[in-house]
Amino acid sequence: MSHEPEIRFLSDSTILDCEWSKKYFTLTTILASLAKKHGPVMLLHIGHVPTIVISSAKAAKEALKTRDPDFCGRPPKFCAARLTYGYSDMGFAPYGEYWRQMRKITSLELYGSRRMQSFLAASRIDELDTLLKSFASSAAKGEAVDLGEKLFAFSSGTMFKITYGTSFKGSMTDDKGFEKLINEAEGLLGAFASADYFGYPDLILAGVDTSALTTNWAMTELMSNPSAMKKAQDEIRHSMAGKTQISKQDIESLKYLKMVLKETLRLHPPAPLMPPKVTTADTQIFGYDIKAGTRVYMNVWAIGRDPETWEDPEKFFPERFEESPIDYRGQHFELIPFGSGRRMCPGYTMGLATIELALANMLHRFDWKLPEGMRKEDISVEEGAGLTTYKKLPLRLVPVVKC
Ligand code: HEM
């Protein structure tokens, strides 16, 4: 007989008991600890909102593959409606005809188009040049850089140029200037204006933070694991000998770098609970009845650290992917940092290319040192609370020019 999953109430002591509460103390980790006790499908009442939390690869597969049409709505949110002029973007849009059309148009004109790929490559190269020059200037002075800040500038600069067709000058909070920019956009926003598609949140919000955070976490893990850093640098320097800048094509041969990225996304998915979804019909999961309109969180963070799937899950060990078929393109539910199914991230190749290019060039051109007096054990892996997994404490490193 089917029934609802159990309702759990969170008390202070439950939360403080959480296994991960000392190292990371965020909603994601609290939910991950609760799932260890109460199972991979939990029903919580957050205020008056019934919410199910899915925390295993098997349950994720049922929701995102077997019953994907029932699990692909987005809950209405006041701030999202304001930000997107009434859900005229794609990421926050409710499941329906408008979303379907936008997904179709953007996959043809944006994520899959050749024109777009060359536009993107040119924008990325300009911004990468700026990033590497700024590291070289700090290297000359022997000063430490805040890596997160620099990577955010690189990622936002690239996305901004693609979106608006110009470099960003001024302030994002200057409403008038910003509106003028949108109206006069020659980049993608200009191209999409005729389709009434408001792509600013999709490109800037979904694309900037996620790519910058992943690169910053990869550097954090590499600095904490010098043997992995050496292996990654040896691979790049060996296969790119004689080159000063690595291109997107060069990266295809960098197998270890790709494993480093997979391992980083396993441990630090930038959207640890995925953007919330809502069920579009009465449905079931794991034999439990779920009503239409139930909010759904997919705990990708917990799935990436599930000891049933991963040996020594807390360890950063890129070699685990050496002989493994597991990939993050939405077919292996053990590793779904980009989601899966019809709402899966459409920008994942764009995001991965930006991250790989930054990381490969940073590791090729520079050695990285911790600031005076700091040991690798002092590097913090603490996560801040928020929609995306940012580092609570900045990673400050001193670049040293190698070539
Ligand atoms: C490391 C980089 C990135 C990660 C980890 C990531 C992750 C995700 C995740 C988990 C989702 C939600 C999937 C779901 O609800 O099932 C998503 C959706 C989305 N992402 Fe990404 N993303 C990344 C980069 C990008 C980039 C570069 C872009 C655009 C240029 C982008 C655009 C979008 C859009 C538009 C959606 C909403 C899709 C929809 O609702 O139909 N993402 N992303």
TrEMBL record:
Its cofactor is heme. Gene3D superfamilies: Cytochrome P450. GO terms for molecular function: heme binding; iron ion binding; monooxygenase activity; oxidoreductase activity, acting on paired donors, with incorporation or reduction of molecular oxygen. Coiled coil: none annotated. SUPFAM superfamilies: Cytochrome P450. InterPro entries: Cyt_P450 (IPR001128), Cyt_P450_CS (IPR017972), Cyt_P450_E_grp-I (IPR002401), Cyt_P450_sf (IPR036396). Keywords: Heme, Iron, Metal-binding, Monooxygenase, Oxidoreductase. Heme binds at residue 345. It comes from the Eukaryota. Belongs to the cytochrome P450 family. This is Cytochrome P450. It comes from Kalanchoe fedtschenkoi (Lavender scallops).
